[in-house]
Fold this sequence. Notes:
Layout: E1 5-10, E2 15-20, E3 25-30, H1 55-64, E4 70-75, H2 77-90, H3 92-95, E5 98-103, H4 109-119
Parallel strand pairs: 1-4, 4-5
Antiparallel strand pairs: 1-2, 2-3
Helix pairs in contact: 1-2
Amino acid sequence: MTHYxxxxxxxxxxxxxxxFNAKDASTRAVRPQNLTRHLHHKAGVIGSGRALEDxxxxxxxxxxxxxxxxxxxxGSANAKAELLKHMQRHAPDIYAKVAAVEAADHPTDREFLxxxxxxxxxxxxxxLRSH
Length: 131
C-alpha cells in the first residue's frame, strides 16, 4: 500500500523508510550493496579519509520514496545531506517533495514514526464540515 507521507531515517548502514498516514504504516529497509568500513584520515595521506558516496544506495532510497506526496528525511549529518544532494541532482521531482530535513541519532522505529506523524499532524486532521 502506498501512503501520501514518507519518512526516511538514513545513515551509511541503512535507510529505514516509513510510508504512513494517521492510522496505518508500513516499514522497509534499504541497505548498501557493499557496506564500506569507517575510514580514518591519516596525516600525510592524500584524501579526506571519507568513503565515497554510495550512489547505488542513494538511488535505491530515492526510488523507494518516489510515490510519496511529501517526504521527511532524518538521520546522520553526512548521510542525510548526501541523500538530499543526490535527489537534487538526479531526481528533482522527488527533491521537491521534501518537506524537512532533520538530525536524528538512531531513534527506534516507533520513536521515529511517532515523530513523523507529529510533524505531519495537520495533514491527518479531518476536513472541517461547512453547515
